[in-house]
Amino acid sequence: MNKKSLSFLTLTPMIFATACGSGSSGTSSISSLPNASDGVASAASALRLKALAASSDHADQKPEKPPGERPEGKSTSGQGISSAESVTWGSGKSRAACELARMVIHSSAPISIADRYKCMIGLVSDNNIIADPYDGKDHYLTLGSSGGEAASHGVSGSRALKFNVTKDSNGNITSFKMFACRNSNQDHYVNIDNVDGVATYTAVNNMNFGEDNSAGRTTVTGEFADGAWTSSKVLTSDLKRSRDSDHSENQSITISQDASSIILSGYRSGTHDGHSMQNQVYAESQILNSSSVDTLELGEGSARVVFTRAGSSTYDKTTSWDGTMKTLATPSAGTYYADVSSATLPAVGTPDTSFASGETWDCSVPSGETAVAVSESELPEAERAQCMKRDMSDHGGDFECGGGD
């Protein structure tokens, strides 16, 4: 890994939680709400997915073809996202596939934090540490961790949390809101709306840790039932990251995902080692082992890309790769080549990652209210480990993609 490159590793823990099954009657517990990082359980409904994709606020990044109309990839194994940074992306490997892996990791990191907090609040609620967490009122926690598995991922000290859950007359959750603070500064906001089988999960973060600064706004929308994204989800992600004047980055992408494929449309731009850079990508790829991002593998795929860096020639290609990420000698032989060859690349802009009205908290507990102090040691070890198991903090996504084909 380039030691001067930006890294999510030092920013904050990135933990992915597993959705617990909820009954077909609805979602009645925090633990059974959707996790933004979970995969899609089944094949997609093309008609429904067109509507979901059209709802994206990234107007110029809508997929050309919804998941239900995509070809099926043929790879039986692929490249794990969590191990992509250990790959030597040199001659023979696809530079476009490398960039796709980077963008997926970068967009997944902020929602991993949100999933972790939601998982921990679910454990607090399931273990009756807070009386009546579903009463529609604000509840306050200080969540501490000292030692143990959490500390091994860089999670130490305590966090101030505020959450609120709203249920309908049938006892089903329609809204979950959470605010999180570190050192008396808000760094996270989460909102999950779960209405009529469609869940919308919004996560906003603004983190400042030493020399690394990161801000992001991510929204995931999809059909949700029985504890899972049932046919599709559409993710939009805006990120801003900076270290110093020589290292700063903006990223804005949309990912449309079903059980066996993704389409990513987006860009990365900024300054790296003092040189301006701009990468535009429209990629379609088979995915395997996609129940969660920690097990997700990229299979064969194709991409239309333009990579520009000051002082270097522009890399402008439509390319394809196999399940080992090796570039195909004949790009048009790729399963997804026809889908991406005429795709329109997204325009480069400036992402909006700020907290909006209603998304802020001053980190204080109102007079008359009490914050419940919770230590990780109070929570069941197996369930706590489940919250931690998809930790992506060791996979910052800042490996180099240069030198590939």
Quick recap of the structure?
With 405 residues, the protein is α+β, with helices and mostly antiparallel strands.
Could you outline the blueprint of secondary structure elements for this entry?
Blueprint: H1 46-54, E1 79-80, H2 95-126, E2 139-145, H3 148-152, E3 157-167, E4 173-182, E5 185-195, E6 198-209, E7 212-225, E8 228-229, E9 233-244, E10 247-257, E11 261-272, E12 275-288, E13 297-309, E14 315-321, H4 337-340, E15 372-375, H5 381-388
Helix pairs in contact: 2-5
Walkthrough of the structure:
- The chain has helices spanning 46-54, 95-126, 148-152, 337-340, 381-388; strands spanning 79-80, 139-145, 157-167, 173-182, 185-195, 198-209, 212-225, 228-229, 233-244, 247-257, 261-272, 275-288, 297-309, 315-321, 372-375.
- The protein has 405 residues and is of the alpha+beta class.
- The chain has one domain (30-388).
- The chain has a 15-stranded mixed sheet that branches.
- It is globular.
- The two termini are 19 Å apart.
- The relative contact order is 0.25.
